TrEMBL record, chain A:
Gene Ontology terms describing biological process: antibiotic catabolic process
Keywords of the record: Hydrolase
Gene3D superfamilies with a match to the protein in the record: Ribonuclease Z/Hydroxyacylglutathione hydrolase-like
NCBIfam families associated with the record: SoxH_rel_PQQ_1
Organism the protein comes from: Ruegeria sp. PrR005
Lineage top rank: taxon: Bacteria
CDD domains: metallo-hydrolase-like_MBL-fold
Residues covered by the Metallo-beta-lactamase domain: 61-241
Matches recorded under SMART domains: Lactamase_B
Pfam families: Lactamase_B
Keyword Hydrolase in record: yes
UniProt protein name: Quinoprotein relay system zinc metallohydrolase 1
UniProtKB/TrEMBL annotation, chain B:
Residue ranges annotated for the Sulphur oxidation protein SoxZ domain, each copy included: 175-249
Signal peptide boundaries: 1-21
Stored Gene3D superfamilies: Immunoglobulins (2.60.40.10), SoxY domain (2.60.40.2470)
Pfam families reported in the protein's UniProt record: SoxY, SoxZ
Domain spans labelled Ig-like SoxY: 41-146
Keyword Ribosomal protein annotated: no
Protein name (record): Quinoprotein dehydrogenase-associated SoxYZ-like carrier
Keyword hit for Signal: yes
Organism: Ruegeria sp. PrR005
């Protein structure tokens, strides 16, 4: 005779079977596979996918840097969601049982600070401009991130950085850093040099093998910032997106792309092209092979062309 | 018997004017958006001859990066005798974006518009003898483009720039591009009434009209258009004249000069 208990057992067995082979009835819980990779003495990185946000990558597209501090780990950029922050927290406790002592955000884009929520009881440092921008734009970013990433974002609420970071030579949790207040990718971009290893952490002022993004860009200012960063002559550069650069190419490549992008848009304005016509022209091989192309180029046309066009077109009245 | 539901049906019928949701030509919407039948009646006047036609190309990005400035290129040059192109969205508080009367220009127009949600977007092309031909595409969007105040109000000199025009002709490639400074307020933002350019006409030096655009609220702030001409017959100079719904006159001249 089939008892209720046996029937439940059957049901449970059936469900377990379904989950293992093909989850027809529900999506598995999304989880991030974050692995800190040691890159220098007392320095690790989490490598992001060189892609755009998607429901496949869960928004894990950013590089995080982790530095050994005196009372725990210093985390530079915290990822795209609450769940990302939680995964980061777990993974980092394997490096130092005390976990994260301090968070620094390089700028206010959501993939760089939406994990802050998990570290809200720790000091979270950023430039003043970044704190202000995160406060005004956080909710808008959040709406868009939920739209792009769906369930990966569950429970995420933007927590802006809380403490304005000093600039020049500073000490954060016992670790000596040089903090460079720059801009161009956004109005306020922080680059950091780790005194002990010489590592230059650039945030999104530098990209490698992934197209730079421009929603808040000022291209001329960005190029100035890149000149400043190149002058550091760091032995290793950790870009905001893309692999660690020990060959000294990332800054130059970022600059070359931005130069090309500006020239392309200025030329297009001089020819009277509309945005769609520019988007339809193919990219040079050198830039077509970057991650997230041609989507990022298309986005950049939307961000930058209206203003460039106004400067190029003559007055008609 | 007169029931409550039939009373409701009558009321809805009255509210929507003559729109019944059942146009005289029933088309098979390639996007199955659920709204096309309604727009076919309300926007196009329930034409007797209408078809979806891939020769009407509507090109836009898959996703609207900036909900306030979605670029769009409509190209009906594969059709002949085009008299009017109606550009509209299926979903949005104000479906109609504009009507373009190409006249002596090519039936092709580049524009930008404000998007309020993910939607199908259509270009309905009226020809002189062969009825309407409708093309479209889909655009995904985070939305909100129609119900936010114009960005112009973030600066205090927008009134001085009102009606300021940039643009020129490229006679070798048959292009005319024009950008007019105007807030293009939809009336959907709290406390800000509708404030839009109603029409822009393009005419030759002797006053002969070559093309006209009738704008509605969803055209972007600081409208930007490219018109296309046969380089052989393109006028060497175009007057652009227009008027907004507050009676402000807009006037400018497009020439081949790079700087003026």
């Amino acid at each position: 005779m089939t008892t209720r208990r046996a029937a439940l057992g059957l049901l449970a067995g059936g469900v377990a079977h379904v989950t293992q082979t093909s989850p027809l009835w529900a999506e598995a819980r999304h989880s991030y596979d974050l692995r800190p990779v040691p890159i220098l003495s007392g320095v690790w990185m989490i490598k992001g996918a060189t892609e755009y946000f998607s429901r496949d990558n869960g928004g894990a597209i950013v590089n995080c840097a982790i530095l050994q501090g005196k009372s725990g780990l210093i985390l530079i950029d915290s990822g795209s969601s609450r769940r990302y922050g939680e995964a980061l927290n777990l993974a980092l406790r394997k490096l130092d049982l005390r976990g994260v002592s301090t968070v620094i955000n390089t700028h206010h884009h959501p993939d760089h600070y939406f994990g802050n929520q998990v570290f809200a009881d720790k000091p979270i440092l950023a430039l003043g401009g970044t704190i202000a921008a995160a406060r005004t734009e956080g909710d808008g970013f959040s709406d868009n991130m939920y739209r792009l990433l769906g369930d990966w974002m569950r429970g995420t609420e933007p927590v802006p950085p809380s403490i304005e970071i000093g600039t020049g030579d500073i000490v954060v949790d016992g670790r000596r850093l040089a903090a460079l207040p720059l801009g161009g990718h956004t109005a306020s971009d922080l680059a950091l040099i780790d005194a002990e290893t010489g590592l230059l952490i650039t945030g999104d002022l530098v990209f490698l093998d992934r197209a730079p993004t421009t929603p808040h860009a000022d291209l001329a200012r960005w190029q100035e910032a890149l000149t400043t960063l190149a002058a550091v002559q760091a032995p290793a550069v950790l870009p905001g997106h893309g692999p660690l650069d020990r060959a000294g190419i990332a800054i130059r490549k970022t600059s070359a792309y931005l130069t090309w992008l500006n020239d392309r848009l200025v030329a297009a304005a001089g020819m009277g092209l509309d945005m769609i016509e520019i988007m339809e022209t193919p990219l040079p091989d050198e830039f077509a092979s970057m991650g997230a192309q041609p989507q990022e180029f298309h986005r950049s046309v939307s961000h930058l062309y209206p203003e460039i066009e106004r400067m190029i077109l003559p007055r008609a009245n | 018997m007169f029931t409550r539901s039939s009373a409701l049906a009558v009321a809805i019928g009255l509210m929507a004017g003559s729109v019944s949701g059942a146009p005289q030509v029933q088309l098979d919407d390639p996007f199955s958006s659920g709204m096309w039948d309604y727009h076919q009646e309300a926007l196009l006047g329930d034409p007797a001859k209408i078809q979806f036609d891939d020769r009407v190309r509507v090109i836009a990005p898959d996703t609207a990066e900036d909900a306030f400035n979605v670029p769009l290129l409509v190209d009906a040059t594969a059709l002949s005798d085009v008299e009017e192109i109606v550009i509209s969205v299926d979903y949005g508080p104000i479906p109609k974006i504009l009507s373009f009367f190409p006249g002596e220009a090519e039936p092709k127009l580049a524009l930008r518009f404000k998007i309020d949600q993910a939607t199908a977007i259509r270009a309905s092309v009226r020809t002189r003898t062969d009825g309407w031909h409708v093309g479209g595409t889909l655009i995904d969007a985070a939305g909100g483009g129609c119900s936010a105040p114009a960005q112009a109000y973030a600066s205090d000199d927008w009134e001085e720039k009102l009606g300021e025009m940039h643009g020129r002709l490229w006679s070798s490639s048959g292009r005319a591009r024009v950008i007019v400074d105007h807030p293009m307020d939809t009336g959907l933002a709290d406390g800000i009434p509708v404030f839009i350019i109603r029409d822009l006409t393009f005419s030759t030096d002797d006053g002969h009209e070559v093309a006209r655009i009738a704008l509605s609220e969803p055209v972007n702030e600081d409208p930007a258009f490219t018109l296309y001409f046969d380089p052989e017959t393109m006028p060497s100079l175009l007057h652009v004249r227009g008027r907004d719904n507050n009676g402000n006159e807009i006037e400018g001249i497009l020439t081949d000069e790079e700087v003026n």
